[in-house]
Fold:
Amino acid sequence: MRHIFRLFTIAALGVAGFVPSTPLFAQQGYVHEVSGSVTGQVGAGSTARIGRGMTIPNNSTVVTGANSYAVLKFEDGTVVLLKENTSFHVQSYAYNPKAPENSNAIFNLVRGGLRVVTGLVTSRNRDALRVATSHATIGIRGTEFSAELVNPLFVGVQVGAVSVTNAAGSMLVGAGQFASVASPTTLGGLVSAGQLGGALQFPNVPLPTAAPLPGPPPAGPGPIGAGAVGGAAGAATTAVVIGAAAAAGIAASGSGSSTTTHH
Structure:
């Protein structure tokens, strides 16, 4: 009955945006923190300003403007920091806490830069998480890395290792190393920190711990529209639904933090 009620509620509101989770559905991911101008879009839907606590369904795109950033967290604990002028697409995300080996995530870095700290989605299957870009696909074998698409693509690894693969082949980038990929048909190569030209520098903001979320929050409809983005009147251009209880629950789950550093 609750399942039917949830579907009816969403259909009745004509939702075309970020939606709340319920105990019957996986949380997917949520917006842990935003600063400045951050917008979201689901599929080909309208673009709306987004705020803390909003959940992120599959086929969502998050875009940060100048002097802005966003911190996203996913159900398995994976944390993604988006720097300014970045477009990030969640192509698909599926986490099974009872069988992590069956979980997978495909993210797309359309432009800009991101920093990723992986959670349990890669704990039993190192191929479960991939970040695709126009120049190469990054396969996650470690726990913390960064990437920035500024033509070329730069990749840096803080902890663990990643593979960087395109039509020219594949290379492995280990902890403390940086790589550059000039084009989709050019094999990447290692570079020094001095060759990054200012890339892979991220805002020094606290990140939530890369631990799984405690479980879906209580069900219930929440505020709609501008009230869901911190009271920015008129900022939302589509109906946006977010559960108030969901926002409180997921915010509490990220109370632990670590601090990013510049590389």
Summary: Confidence is low (pLDDT under 50) at residues 1-26, 217-263.
